[in-house]
Every structure is written in structure tokens, then in C-alpha cells.
Amino acid sequence: RSSMCSSLAPLESYSQAQVDGLGVVSLQVIVPEAFEEISRFRALCGEHFDSEDAAWAGLLQACGKVGFDAHLRKVEFVQAARTIGFQGNAGLVFDACDLEQEHYLSLAQFRFLCVGSAPDA
User: Fold this and answer.
1) Helix (H) or strand (E) holding 108
2) What angle do CA 50, 98, 113 make, to 5 degrees?
3) DSSP H or E segment with residue 110
4) How many Cα atoms within 13 Å fall on the side-chain side of residue 29?
5) CB-based contact 38:8 (threshold 8 Å)
6) What share of residues in the chain are helix, strand, coil (percent, to 5)?
7) In this structure, are residues 48 and 85 in contact, taking their beta carbons and an 8 Å threshold?
8) DSSP element (H, E) containing 73
9) Distance (Å, rounded) from C-alpha 99 to C-alpha 97?
């Protein structure tokens, strides 16, 4: 998980595309627009919430849902993101988390964003 979170480190730490011995490329290189939106969303969540769980709970609350086992559909996620002040492309952030294309997000899928995680140096 820390390797994944480190791929979302601030932009200045990725001035060059770097590929490790396993052939992993950062999200910034593959899908720079998604990387930018995820970075903005993470920063906003960091301003409003003190943890990943608190951010998920805040998004659920914005949709009138409770319980960490609840799911958010794309329209709900976009609405919740707007409610907390995100002005970017929340649909793109949702799509980045919905890797299995299930058309909803759970807390487990939301963890892909590494909200509240300090990037590795």
C-alpha cells in the first residue's frame, strides 16, 4: 500500500518518469489528468478530514448514508465531493477508484486514494 501511495506523491517529486525493476510506472505518467484530479481531491480531503476513515464518513454523510459498509454510486460520490468543496472532475476520481467497474465505491475501493497518508520520500 505504501508503494501505491508513494505513486501519488506531490508532482515535484516526479519530474522524470521513473520505472522500477518490476516495470511499475507512476499514475502521473500513465494518466496525468487523473493524477492531477486525485492529488487535488486528496489535498481537499486532507484539509477537511483528519483521516481516511473520517473522509469516507464525511462523503457518506453528505449523501445521507451511514456505516462504513455503505457504498456510493458515481452520482452520489460526485455530489458528496461537491458538498465538501471539490471543484475538479469528481467523476474522474470515482473512475480511478472503480477499477473493477462495479459502478459503486466501497471504503476498500476509496482507500486507493490514500487520503491522509503521507507519501513516501
Assistant:
1) helix 107-110
2) 25
3) helix 107-110
4) 12
5) yes
6) 55, 5, 40
7) yes
8) strand 72-73
9) 6
* C-alpha distance across the termini of the chain, in Å: 14
Q: Hey, is 67 helix, strand or coil?
A: coil
- Give the pLDDT confidence of 12-44 residue by residue, as tens digits: 344 344 444 556 667 777 778 889 999 999 999
Please provide residue 45's backbone torsions phi and psi, each rounded to the nearest 5 degrees. -60, -40
Grid cell locating 84: 465538501
Distance CA 26, CA 8 (A): 8
Which grid coordinates are listed for 111?
Answer: 482507500
Per-residue pLDDT band for 120 (boundaries 50, 70, 90) equals: very low
- Residue 28, pLDDT score: 74
- Phi, psi values for residue 41, rounded to 5°: -65, -45
The three cell numbers locating residue 83: 458538498
Are the C-beta atoms of residues 75 and 16 closer than 8 Å to each other?
Answer: no
> What distance in Å separates the CA atoms of residue 86 and residue 99, rounded to the nearest whole number?
21
Mean pLDDT calculated for residue range 72-99 = 95
